């Protein structure tokens, strides 16, 4: 019985791998955040005749402390308004298969926008997938912005400072 189960599992895995499709273009890049931001994808150019080809790109970066992250991507082609049909724009923490943030198309701007909040320190990556929809040369690019989340002590100092300003203003008013 164990032998039959092993054979069935092997057949299922073989069938699954036969139907799995890999992207035509794949790229992995490590981003260096300068003042909490980085551009990416500017070198991602798909040659004329790439219509129908798929791609899957990973952009890795590190977050030093509790932070918020925001990113957007856009594409341009000479013969099409965008040139790329994006199918995935997600943020993952390395080692996790669950997206920390999911991007989507903003109808007003035409950009794909992603926003993640309260991300713990660690290594993360943006995963971008899509299909080239233009017969001409097509380019996509994006940017990433990471900003630290203020700690509770910061808010406490802000409130204490406002209280002191209010106290000084009240004393000046009563003296005059």
Give the SSE layout.
Layout (H helix, E strand, L loop, with lengths): L1 H18 L5 E6 L6 E10 L7 E10 L3 E11 L6 E10 L5 E4 L1 E2 L6 E8 L2 E11 L5 E11 L3 H24 L1
Parallel strand pairs: 1-3
Antiparallel strand pairs: 2-10, 3-9, 4-8, 4-10, 5-6, 5-9, 7-8
Query: How would you sum up the global shape?
Result: elongated
Taken together, the total number of domains comes to: 1
Mean pLDDT: 82
The helix count comes to: 2
Proportion in helices:
10-25%
CATH architecture: Sandwich
Overall radius of gyration: 24 Å
Structural class: alpha+beta
Number of strands: 10
How do the strands of the widest beta sheet line up side by side?
A: 1-3-9-5-6
Major pleated sheet: 5 strands, mixed
CATH hierarchy, class: Mainly Beta
**Could you name the ranges where pLDDT drops below 50 across 5 or more consecutive residues?**
10-20
Description:
The protein is built from two helices and ten strands; from the N terminus they run H-E-E-E-E-E-E-E-E-E-E-H. It has one domain: Jelly Rolls (Sandwich). A hairpin with a 5-residue loop joins strand 5 (84-93) and strand 6 (99-102). The protein is of the alpha+beta class and 176 residues long. 24% of the residues lie in helices and 47% in strands. Residues 10-20 have low confidence and may be disordered.
